[in-house]
């Protein structure tokens, strides 16, 4: 098993009212998505390992967003931040915190939900057609992530949970 990790050094503030910790599996690397991600024009995608390794440092400090129905992305509804990212085997694992004081209703809804997943947001993507309806992403930068119902995520193996 190979692990690559990095994190923003955040000062410890015990009981901080606006930091509710989370951990999640953002995506799977080197395998085709179960369904087409938003923005892929109906194509399933594969994030290549090399491209993901190059993009890992772009995850730190990126926002976590949501939609009221927990079914997609809305980059204008930022509710948290990613402070740590690891490539563990074929999984991109992230952690950070949600802004619990600023968005108590949203954090409460997430806390009472089950079977949540994540979805990545990327920009500057370069793709090549790997096979019928599957794009291989060979270059990109992470620009954020969304928390959503796992059934709506492009990868069913994603996960999201509060700490």
Summarize the structure.
With 163 residues, the chain is mainly beta.
Shape, per Cα inertia axes: globular
Structural class: mainly beta
User: Into which percent range does the helicity of residues fall?
Assistant: under 10%
How do the helices and strands follow one another from N- to C-terminus?
Answer: EEEHEEEHEEE
Number of domains: 1
Strand tally is 9
Report the sheet with the most strands, covering strand number, pairing sense and barrel closure.
9 strands, mixed
Mean pLDDT, all residues = 93
Query: Beta-strand percentage?
Result: over 45%
Q: Main attributes?
A:
163 residues; mainly beta; 2 helices
What does this protein look like?
The protein is mainly β. It has 2 helices and 9 strands, in the order E-E-E-H-E-E-E-H-E-E-E. 10% of the residues lie in helices and 47% in strands. The protein starts with a strand and ends with a strand.
Secondary structure layout plus pairing:
Layout (H helix, E strand, L loop, with lengths): L2 E5 L12 E9 L15 E4 L1 H7 L7 E3 L12 E11 L2 E8 L5 H9 L3 E16 L2 E16 L9 E4 L1
Parallel strand pairs: 3-8, 4-8
Antiparallel strand pairs: 1-5, 2-6, 2-9, 4-5, 5-6, 7-8
